[in-house]
Write a structure and sequence with these properties.
This protein is mainly β and 129 residues long. 11% of the residues lie in helices and 48% in strands.
C-alpha cells in the first residue's frame, strides 16, 4: 500500500536551492516507512532523596523510506542526483509536506531490480525545518 497524502517525495540539492539546483521527485513511498527515534532515559537523585527520570530526544531523526516500481529513467536520475550531492546537506519534502534538512545515509544506496522496474530503500538523517 502506498501513502497518498502528498503523493511525492522531493529531494533538492543544494539545500537552499537557487540556480543550478538539482531536484528529484520520487513517487509516494510504501506505508512501511519508519521514523527512528534514539531516545535516551536518564535517572538522577534529588537532594531530598527522590529519584527522577527524564527522556532526552535527539535533534536528528532517521527516516527509512521504501519506493517501489521506479522506472529506469527515474533510477538513472536518482543515481545522477546521488553522484552530484556527495556528502552535502539536501532538502527533503516528505509525502506529508514536511521539510527536512539532512543527508542521505546508508551508503551505498542500492536498487533492487524487478521486471522493468526498480525498488529503492532510502535512509535519510536530518532535522525538520
Amino acid at each position: 500500500m502506498v501513502c497518498d497524502y502528498g503523493s511525492t517525495v522531493i529531494l533538492l540539492h543544494p539545500y537552499t536551492g537557487g540556480a543550478g539546483a538539482s531536484t528529484v521527485t520520487l513517487p509516494a513511498p510504501q506505508l512501511n516507512n519508519i521514523e527512528h527515534y534514539n531516545l535516551k532515559t536518564s535517572f538522577g537523585t534529588a537532594m531530598s532523596g527522590d529519584i527522577y527520570s527524564y527522556i532526552k530526544t535527539p535533534a536528528v531523526s532517521k527516516l527509512t523510506m521504501s519506493f517501489v516500481r521506479l522506472t529506469l529513467a527515474l533510477k538513472n536520475e536518482m543515481i545522477l542526483f546521488l553522484d552530484t550531492i556527495g556528502g552535502d546537506d539536501i532538502k527533503l519534502t516528505d509525502w506529508l509536506g514536511n521539510d527536512w534538512k539532512g543527508k542521505i545515509s546508508g551508503n551505498p544506496v542500492q536498487f533492487e531490480e524487478g521486471i522493468n522496474r526498480y525498488n529503492l530503500t532510502l535512509e535519510f538523517e536530518g532535522v525538520p525545518v
